[in-house]
Amino acid sequence: MAEDHPIPAGFAPEDELEEERTGRRTRNRLIILGVVVALAVGYMVYAAFPGNALYFVTVSEFMGGDQYQDGRLIRVSGKLAPDSFQRQDNSTLARFQLVDKEGDGGGNTLDASYVGVMPDLFFNPHSEIILEGSYTPEGVFDTDSILVKCPSKYQSLDEELPADYNTYNAGPAPQAS
Fold first, then answer.
1. What CATH code would you report for 54-151?
2. Region for residue 15 given its phi and psi (left: phi exceeds 0; alpha: psi -120 to 50; beta: otherwise)
């Protein structure tokens, strides 16, 4: 008998109302799920990289600013000063000096110490060295870890090879067969 009576304006049949409610619930669930996933990913990124938020300063910036020399954890970037590396026999304690990579630091050097095995590229004159540690009241940078950035693969060969390199490596003249 309900089919004989027309539906008044403004009223929807029961199935259409139920479909609308289901659609809203699904949309609300998707929005909540999206927010939860976004928060979870954001937290994982934040938790995974806390050490990378620590930026580094150059040797001249470090030596010129007392605010860096208060004993807090900091990173200092430079290169190994020539002939400054010292290690006692049968010891893992190393002492060395760091200077600005570009050499424009006005002669500033940073005395540093490190206990442990030195990375292989530490002694490469083209390597950039990043020390992480703190400055002691004795005026020595106590290094906790050492990062060595590899020299650029685009480094000019003229700087690294002797002028007569081709005469050393030319080898015997090819023979006719």
1. 2.40.50.140
2. alpha
